[in-house]
Design goal:
Blueprint lengths: L1 H14 L25 E4 L6 E2 L7 E6 L5 H16 L4 E8 H4 L3 H15 L6 E6 L1 H5 L7 E5 L5 E5 L6 H8 L18
Parallel strand pairs: 3-4, 4-5
Antiparallel strand pairs: 1-2, 1-5, 3-6, 6-7
Protein name: Redoxin domain-containing protein
InterPro entries: Thioredoxin-like_sf, Thioredoxin_domain, Thioredoxin_ResA/DsbE_sf
Organism: Chitinophaga hostae
């Protein structure tokens, strides 16, 4: 009887659906400016299939680590939408909500996006990754918002706070230039 129980558990484990974070390499280490970012996967809010970082090849990608309770994060969202329009097709903001970093839950995210639609009268416009664990391991941090600037060829051009998010810095990053802004260094390595 015990054998059947353990056999059934093993089958359930093999049959479970694979989430984006399960597709990541087992050994991840903190990345820094100048490093190449692996082709990581993200599970998106309200999307069935995960995306890869390489889905945005040829664009400047700015990862924005955020949380529903972070008012300074939320205040920046209209600026991202505006910058994506201004630099049409050259830049992509990817909001990243990390499980470990935010303690947000799916019900909290549902409430946030529902409230956004009610107040703004339209769905949330920005691409949002949820339940992240991989990107958080690659770019550990304590304070949010936390931005990681990734070039068209997946090189890290900067790790910054919100003050660095300027048109001038975006223009430099689009040229593949490492940002002159100081590196945001509130990282930690506990449990990584």
């Amino acid at each position: 009887m015990k054998f059947m129980f353990f056999f059934a558990l093993a089958l359930i484990g093999l049959a479970r659906p694979s989430f984006a974070q399960d597709l990541q390499p087992a050994k991840l280490h903190r990345l820094s400016v100048g490093d190449t970012v692996p082709d990581i996967f993200f599970l998106l809010w309200n999307e069935k299939a995960p995306i890869k970082l390489s889905d945005h090849t040829g664009k400047l990608v700015i990862l924005d680590f955020w949380a529903t309770w972070c008012s300074s994060c939320v205040r920046m969202f209209p600026k991202y939408d505006s910058l994506e329009n201004q630099f049409s097709g050259q830049i992509k903001f990817l909001l990243v909500n990390s499980v470990r970093g935010t303690l947000d839950s799916i019900p909290q995210l549902q409430t946030f996006f529902r409230r956004w639609q009610t107040v703004k009268g339209k769905p949330f416009p920005l691409t949002t990754a949820i339940n992240d664990t991989t990107a958080f391991k690659l770019f550990p941090h304590i304070y949010i918002p936390h931005y990681v600037w990734i070039s068209a060829n997946r090189k890290i051009l900067g790790i910054t706070s919100a003050e660095a998010l300027t048109t001038g810095n975006i223009q430099e990053a689009l040229k593949g230039q490492i940002l002159k802004e100081p590196i945001k260094d509130d990282r930690y390595d506990r449990d990584n």
